[in-house]
């Protein structure tokens, strides 16, 4: 009966919580197993509807680091963009559940964070560490002070050291003349190989480019354009536009505007083939979303400038510059690269003289720009040196006939060689 009464009394006694009863801190250490702050699990965030997994590329913080709310702690690489993992609340990182280069899925637990105002505690924690490191320092200093006289006794042993250094020197000089073919080790000495796994973006690029070659009936037509008028136009107005709008006037905006005007006469260039089994429907569009190819360290990306038909040259240039900066900084989102009805790729910035770009499916054409080179050309029966550029239009022959593709490229050439036509 007595034991039964004690059990009933124990059940009736309310359990104390360390959050509401700070007096529990006075308990012996063996009973203090309850954390002061709550823990929170950090999960892989939602990335996009079409992306369910990625590779945890790097941890930006280490275990024990204090992070603020929304501070980036890790980067997940997907086949399209890099996704940042941010801290949901301020706290201290306590545990990582995955390692770098591991594959993670949306909603997966990747880290544990201890919530609370850890900066003050963080300031107290390193202090004992410094004390601990300071304690062995004098201990090490004492043995270092004891062998000092021994080092003085070993001073006579110092002269043989330079003697040893002198002895290997002559054989080295003798070995050099003994090897007359000096070029052979330089050319054949390094035969190492390194195998690096392709990142997700590069794998996705390879997959899409091969898909384009296997799907589209790609054909490329070439032409050359005299850049004199456009270069004079840019030289005359670039300083004024930069001072007024803060935008650096380039050539991409002029080519984008020329393509939009040429599409009014040949709208099929802005169309695409959609449907099952390779497609059975042609989709025509009244808007123009131009994908601008931008080269980054991880691979080629194509952010989209939307509704180019409604923008002037300054607006187009500003939008292209903003997208290029976001691409180089790794800040592009899925929305920035979704869609696109036509692509312009400027390989000329890298010095390419001529090339055949690959269609970015499901688009039907891509315009390739190349380097500007001074070449002798016939002008009004005379030979003159002009800045010339080769243009390349790769198009899907399933949708565009050769006549339409050539006419489109010629119209772009005419607009560039006389930019005043774009105002008519």
From TrEMBL:
Cofactors demanded by this protein: (R)-lipoate
Gene3D superfamilies: 2.40.50.100, Chloramphenicol acetyltransferase-like domain (3.30.559.10)
Basic and acidic residues: compositionally biased ranges: 122-133, 141-156
Chain positions covered by the region annotation Disordered: 115-194
Keyword entries, A-Z: Acyltransferase, Lipoyl, Mitochondrion, Transferase, Transit peptide, Tricarboxylic acid cycle
InterPro entries, per database record: 2-oxoA_DH_lipoyl-BS, 2-oxoacid_dehydrogenase, 2-oxoacid_DH_actylTfrase, Biotin_lipoyl, CAT-like_dom_sf, Single_hybrid_motif, SucB
Pfam family, one: Biotin_lipoyl
EC category: transferase
Pathway(s) where this gene product acts: Amino-acid degradation; L-lysine degradation via saccharopine pathway; glutaryl-CoA from L-lysine: step 6/6
Residues covered by the Lipoyl-binding domain: 39-114
SUPFAM superfamilies (alphabetical): CoA-dependent acyltransferases, Single hybrid motif
EC number: 2.3.1.61
GO molecular function: dihydrolipoyllysine-residue succinyltransferase activity
GO cellular component, as recorded: mitochondrion; oxoglutarate dehydrogenase complex
Subcellular location: Mitochondrion
GO process terms (BP): tricarboxylic acid cycle
NCBIfam families according to UniProt: sucB
Sequence similarity: Belongs to the 2-oxoacid dehydrogenase family.
Name of the protein this chain belongs to: dihydrolipoyllysine-residue succinyltransferase
Species of origin: Diplogelasinospora grovesii
């Amino acid at each position: 009966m007595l034991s039964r009464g004690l059990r009933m009394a124990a059940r009736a006694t309310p359990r104390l919580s360390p959050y509401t009863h700070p007096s529990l801190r006075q308990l012996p250490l063996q009973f203090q197993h309850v954390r002061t702050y709550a823990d929170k699990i950090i999960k892989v965030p939602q990335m996009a509807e079409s992306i369910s997994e990625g590779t945890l590329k790097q941890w930006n913080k280490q275990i024990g680091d204090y992070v603020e709310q929304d501070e980036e702690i890790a980067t997940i690489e997907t086949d399209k963009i890099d996704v940042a993992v941010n801290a949901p609340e301020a706290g201290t990182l306590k545990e990582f559940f995955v390692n770098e280069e591991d594959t993670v899925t949306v909603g997966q637990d990747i880290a544990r964070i201890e919530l609370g105002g850890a900066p003050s505690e963080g300031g107290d924690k390193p202090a004992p560490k410094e004390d601990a490191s300071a304690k062995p320092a004098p201990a090490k200093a004492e043995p270092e002070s004891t062998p000092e006289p021994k080092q003085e006794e070993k001073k006579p042993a110092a002269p043989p050291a330079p003697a040893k250094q002198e002895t290997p020197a002559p054989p080295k000089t003798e070995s050099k003349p003994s090897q007359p073919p000096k070029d052979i080790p330089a050319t054949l000495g390094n035969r190492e190989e390194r195998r690096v796994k392709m990142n997700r973006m590069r794998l996705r690029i390879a997959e899409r480019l091969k898909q384009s070659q296997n799907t589209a009936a790609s054909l490329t037509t070439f032409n050359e354009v005299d850049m004199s008028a456009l270069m004079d136009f840019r030289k005359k107005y670039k300083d004024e536009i930069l001072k007024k709008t803060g935008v650096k006037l380039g050539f991409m905006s002029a080519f984008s505007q020329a393509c939009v005007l040429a599409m009014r006469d040949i709208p099929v260039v802005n169309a695409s083939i959609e449907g099952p089994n390779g497609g059975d429907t042609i989709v025509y569009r009244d808007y123009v979303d131009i994908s601008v190819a931008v080269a980054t360290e991880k691979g080629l990306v194509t952010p989209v400038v939307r509704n180019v038909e409604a923008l002037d040259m300054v607006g187009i240039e500003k939008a292209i510059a903003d997208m290029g900066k976001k691409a180089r900084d790794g800040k592009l989102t899925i929305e920035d690269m979704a869609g696109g009805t036509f692509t312009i790729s400027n390989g000329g910035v890298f010095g390419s003289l001529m090339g055949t770009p690959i269609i970015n499916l499901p688009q039907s054409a891509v315009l390739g720009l190349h380097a500007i080179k001074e070449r002798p050309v016939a002008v009004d029966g005379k030979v003159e040196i002009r800045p010339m550029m080769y243009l390349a239009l790769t198009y899907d022959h399933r949708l565009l006939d050769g006549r339409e593709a050539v006419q489109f490229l010629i119209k772009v050439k005419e607009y560039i060689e006389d930019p005043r036509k774009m105002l008519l």
